[in-house]
Amino acid sequence: MAEPVVRPGVPASSPTSTPTSAEPSAGVRPLVVVPDAADRAVEVRMLNAVQAAVATPPVVRVARGMSLFGEHAGGWLFLGLVGAAVDRGRRRDWLGAVAGVAAAHGASIAVKRVVRRRRPDDPSVRVLVSTPSRLSFPSAHATSTTAAAVLYGGLLERPLVPVLVPPMALSRLVLGVHYPSDVLVGSALGAGVAGGVRAWLRRRVGKR
Questions:
Q1: I need a labelling partner for 16 at 20 to 30 A (CA). Which of 107, 147, 197, 208 fits?
Q2: Which pLDDT tens digit goes with each residue over 46-81?
Q3: Can you tell me the distance from the alpha carbon of 169 to that of 76, in angstroms, rounded to the nearest whole number?
Q4: What is the distance between the alpha carbons of residues 137 and 182, in angstroms, rounded to a whole number?
């Protein structure tokens, strides 16, 4: 059975869209950043290729689980709080890392509201999960995942970026809710915010 198409920004059970706090409002002139026709066509073809290659039912189920885990950075914030509870000697560092993940997520939402790029809506792209808004750029999932990988990886002394970031980025393409450039810029934003927070944490450790 074919997967249902879920329109961006609309719950799977709802036939109509409901404005959210991240949606454009009357009287607001947003900075609209969208690819031109040629670039958009390239990104749509990339989405088509990804979905044709790997969007099997088992992969889609996993991608949906990852989407739920990363929604509003909730899963990453929870894991950071677990780290703070378990690693009591570095609790403040863990809490600082959690704050960094939250800051990265907040930065991505702020950029979304300024840029207001719409999610993929080409008929050839299957949208396989509902989203809280129609705004696409950058991917908040990619942003918070990258920030968590950098910050938590630093505390654990493990290279988490190559383990965590590519699967989350790919999952957003599999589900048809982001253009490739959304996840690339989201990851860059997450790395930038996390890099600043990590440098601050290192300075704190050096002063002890």
A1: 107
A2: 999 999 999 999 999 999 999 999 999 999 999 999
A3: 15
A4: 5
- Answer positive or negative: Cα dihedral of 69, 153, 172, 184: positive
**Angle at CA of residue 119, ends 117 and 120, nearest 5°:** 125
Give the closest residue to 69 by CA, choosing from 150, 148, 157: 148
What's the CA gap between 136 and 143, in Å, rounded?
12
DSSP-derived secondary structure letter, 135: B
What does the alpha-carbon distance between residue 109 and residue 103 come to, in Å, rounded to a whole number? Answer: 10
Do 159 and 150 contact (CB within 8 A), yes or no?
no
Find how far residue 74's CA is from the centre of its chain.
11
**H-state helical runs in the chain:** 37-54, 57-70, 74-86, 91-115, 140-156, 161-174, 180-207
Closest by CA to 154, choosing from 103, 87, 109, is 87
Q: What's the CA gap between 208 and 205, in Å, rounded?
A: 5
Residue 200 corresponds to which tokens in the numbers above? 């601050």
The residue extents of the domains of the chain are 37-207
Domain spanning 37-207: which CATH class is it, in words?
A: mainly alpha
